[in-house]
Amino acid sequence: MGILIGTAKLFFRIIYFFMKRGPASGNVIFVSRQGDEPSEDYRALAETLRADGIRTEMYLQRQEKDGSRFMANAIANMRMILRQMRALSRARVAVTDGYSIPISILKHRKELTVIQMWHAIGAVKKFGLQTLQAMSDRDKRRAKLLCMHAGYDFFIAPSESAARFFAEAFGMSEDKALITGTPYVDALYVGTFNQEGDIAAAYPEFDENEKAGRPLKVVLYVPTYRKDTPGHDMDKTYERGEGPGALRKALGSDGYMVIEKKHPVDEVDGSGIYAEELLYAADIVVTDYSSLAFAAALVGKPLYYYIYDIEDYRRSPGLNIDPELEYGRYAARSARAIARLIREKDYDMEYERAFARKYVETYDGGCTERLKSVILRALGDETVRP
After folding, report:
1. Residue in 308, 266, 263, 318 with CA at minimum distance from that of residue 288
2. Predicted pLDDT at 65
3. Is the separation of the CB atoms in 20 and 90 below 8 Å?
4. From CA 128, how far away is CA 158, in angstroms rounded?
5. Structural domains in the chain?
6. Which candidate, 31, 263, 282, 380, has a CA 20 to 30 Å from the CA of 256?
7. What pLDDT score does 210 carry?
């Protein structure tokens, strides 16, 4: 594997050397392996840049992990990498929302500014280079060969308190943090995701509850992404007797209904409904280590941490924010305990707001404009200062 990766890196670097000999275009490019369509962050930022006459380009492709289509996926990935390399060789600013092979393994023009705008609003779990300690020796060698999270000039952080987590994850110093917030935070601020009509069509039980005058409080259960985390899959959850079924049983049908929305990588349910849209329709949000917790706190939904496997997560991949220590008033290790907390009905919203402000201090509707100003300075050859 090491020889194969090393050969591929050399191949790409030689090609890129000649690509860079052409003139720079001054474009802003967006690179992602998270999906085939622009995220809210990318869509809104590109839109505001284009309104100022800045040309933007998108290079998006969901990372496929279907082993049965290995060759087809490898060819598709190769094509996308070459397209991204061509775009990077001409661009003045590149924005990425995750690890990008061409950004991290190649030597770029000095005029190129690369900004890491991570695809999650916050980081309860450790991620990126923070998880090296928990990796196998083989995965550590692979991460080193692939120059994991190298090549960034700056990274977006939601707050001063959270900047350390992101700096560690990207192997950077905290002085490279841009505390601008992201367009996603602005979307929460103005209610972009508030689409209750679409939800009623996709979730019949929600529609029936609405037509009946909403006699049942809607509890949205949003577990974190688990498939890439050894020992944390949902099968193990069910073996423990925990999970959404246990939560439904503990709450009962008298006064509550539980809607589960898994991470989009864990489950593509075909509804076309985002977790954020369900967030506005819910009365209560229950999660474990998902970054949707911050969104729930920002929009003022009572938030509860259902952390039946917290000891496992403390060991691997590790926690940046320990819910039991930071949000202990509304955190519990069993569905029955969570149900008791929910039924108490004396939720302290100020406690929640303090938590939200600590980890997302940019909830003011100005994130997109601040980020646009950073990019315009980079395009104008001005020094970008965090």
Report:
1. 308
2. 61
3. no
4. 17
5. 2-181+364-379 (3.40.50.11820), 194-359 (3.40.50.12580)
6. 263
7. 75
Question: Which residue from 85, 61, 76, 71 is spatially nearest to 11, judged by alpha carbons?
Answer: 85
Backbone angles phi, psi at 28, to 5 degrees: -105, 125
Rounded to an integer, the average pLDDT of 69-86 is 86
pLDDT in tens, 338-361: 999 999 978 999 999 999 999 999
Distance CA 367, CA 115 (A): 15
359, 159 contact by CB (below 8 A)? yes
More confident residue, 356 or 21: 356
What rounded mean pLDDT belongs to the chain? 89
Dmax over CA atoms of the chain, in Å, equals 69
> In the structure, what pLDDT confidence band is assigned to residue 19 with cuts at 50, 70 and 90?
very high
Q: What is the mean pLDDT of residues 298-324?
A: 95
